[in-house]
Amino acid sequence: MLRFITTAHTLRFHKPAMTSRGLLSQRTVQIITVVDAQQPEITGMGECGPVPGLSIDDRPDFARQVEIACARLTAGRLNSPTLEQAAAILAHHADLTPAVLPSFYFGLETALRDLATGGRQRLWDTPFSRGDVALRTHGLIWMDSPEALLAQIEHKVASGHRVIKLKVGALPWGDELALLRRVRVQWPANELELRLDANGAFGSPAEAEARLVDLAPLAIHYLEQPLPAHRLEELAWLCRRSPVPLVLDETLIGVDPAAAPALLHLIRPAGIIVKPALLGGFTAAEGWVAAAQALGMDWWANSLLESNIGLNAICQWTAHVDPTGATVHGLGTGQLFVENLPAPVRLVGAELWCDE
After folding, report:
1. High-pLDDT (> 90) share of the chain, %
2. E strands within 106-241?
3. Among residues 179, 227, 223, 221, which one has the least CA distance to residue 201?
4. Active site residue 156
5. Is the separation of the CB atoms in 230 and 200 below 8 Å?
6. How far apart are CA 116 and CA 87, in angstroms?
7. Which CATH superfamily is domain 2-116 in?
8. Is the dihedral of CA 8, 14, 16, 20 positive or negative?
9. How many CA atoms, within 13 angstroms, populate the side-chain half-sphere of residue 237?
10. Identical fold between 2-116 and 135-354
11. How confident is the model at residue 190 (pLDDT cuts 50, 70, 90)?
12. pLDDT at residue 53, as a whole number
C-alpha cells in the first residue's frame, strides 16, 4: 500500500526577484513523498507550490489542503502508483480536484511517476534523462531598470544564450522600446532571438496594437499575453491583426484541457506557453500541447520558480514530449535559490544537463 507524506520547504532567493506579481524574496513549496510499504527504500518525490497572485490554488490554506489530500490518498489504500487511481479517490471531494488544486496534481503526478520508475528522479527514459544530450533554454531577464536589464542581457549572451526573454509593460513604453531598439542594434536578429512577455499589461486592444506596430521592425520572435487573461474576444481580434506573433500563457490557467481545442480555435494565437504546475500536471499539459499541434500552433514549455525537484521533472517531461530538441524552451536554472533541493538537473551555459 502507498503512503503519501507532505513536508514544507522554504526556498529563499539569492537576490529578491521582481516579478509581474511583485517582489519575491522567498516562496514555500510542499514536497510530496510517496512510499510503498512493500519497498520502503524506494520513494517518489514531487513538488507543489502556488505562485502568489497567479496560481488558481494560491490560497492561505493550501498546505492544509495538501495534507488532507495526502491523508485521503493514504486512506484509499492504493497499491499502484498510477495517477488515474489517485485522481479517482480524490474525485469524490470537490475541493481536491485538479480544477481547484492544479499545482498539487503537478506534484502528485511527479511523485507517482518517480516511484513507478524506481525513485531515482529519472521520470522518462530519454537521451536527456540518460545524460547523452542537453536541453537548451532561453535566458530569462528579470524586471529592473533599463541599464540593469541591458547588463543582464549582456551577461546571458556572454554565457551562451542566443534566445532571450524579457518582460514588458512595467516601465514607460518609450523606455522599453528604446531598450529593445538598442538591443537590436547590438545583437541583430540572426544573432539573438527576442521573446517578450507583457503579462496582460497592455490596457486595451488599441494600445496593444499600437505597441505591436512599434515592435514590428525589431524581429520579435513572439509576444506573450498582451491583454489580460479572460478578454478572449479582444485577444482573438488582436491575434488576427498583430504584426508580431502572439502567444497565450495566463489565458490557459483554470481552463479544463478538454476545452483547449475550442479556446485555441477561437483566439488563434501563434502558440502557447505550457506550465505544468499551473495547468494541473503533465497529463493536462499534454492535452494543451496536442490541441495546439492539431491547429498548427507552436508551444513552449516553461518552468515556474520551482525548486530543483519540480524543474527536473519539467525538463525531463519536455525532453520526452519534444524529442527532437529543436525548440528552445523556457526552463529555469535552479540557481535562484539558497539551499535548493537535490536533483540531477544542472545548467551549463545555456544548456541543461541531467547527471547520471
Report:
1. 88
2. 135-136, 139-141, 163-167, 193-197, 220-224
3. 227
4. no
5. no
6. 16
7. Enolase-like, N-terminal domain (3.30.390.10)
8. negative
9. 10
10. no
11. very high
12. 86
Fold of the domain spanning 135-354: TIM Barrel (3.20.20)
* Domain positions in the chain: 2-116, 135-354
Check residue 342 and give its pLDDT.
Answer: 92
**What's the grid cell of residue 222?**
513572439
On the 0-12 / 13-18 / 19+ scale of CB atoms within 10 A, 339 is exposed
d(C-alpha 318, C-alpha 325), whole Å: 9
Q: Are strands 135-136 and 351-354 parallel, antiparallel or unpaired?
A: antiparallel
Other C-beta atoms within 10 Å of 99: how many? 13
233-266, pLDDT tens digit by residue?
999 999 999 999 999 999 999 999 999 999 999 9
Query: Among residues 15, 156, 165, 275, which one is catalytic?
Result: 275
CA distance 201 to 19: 13
**Beta strands, E only, 142-276:** 163-167, 193-197, 220-224, 246-248, 271-274
> Which residues are CB-neighbours of 324 under 8 A, at least 6 positions away?
none
Q: E-assigned strands of 71-182?
A: 135-136, 139-141, 163-167
pLDDT of residue 24: 77
Contacts of 203 (CB under 8 A, 6+ apart): none
Judging by DSSP bridges, how do beta strands 298-301 and 271-274 pair with one another?
parallel
Q: Above pLDDT 70, what percent of the chain?
A: 97
Catalytic residue, candidates 15, 156, 165, 167: 167
Confidence bin at 63 (pLDDT 50/70/90): very high
Q: Is 15 a catalytic residue?
A: no
Report pLDDT for 333: 67
User: Does position 20 have pLDDT exceeding 80, yes or no?
Assistant: no
**Whole-model pTM above 0.85?**
yes
- CA angle 268-274-279, nearest 5°? 105
Grid cell for residue 292: 495546439
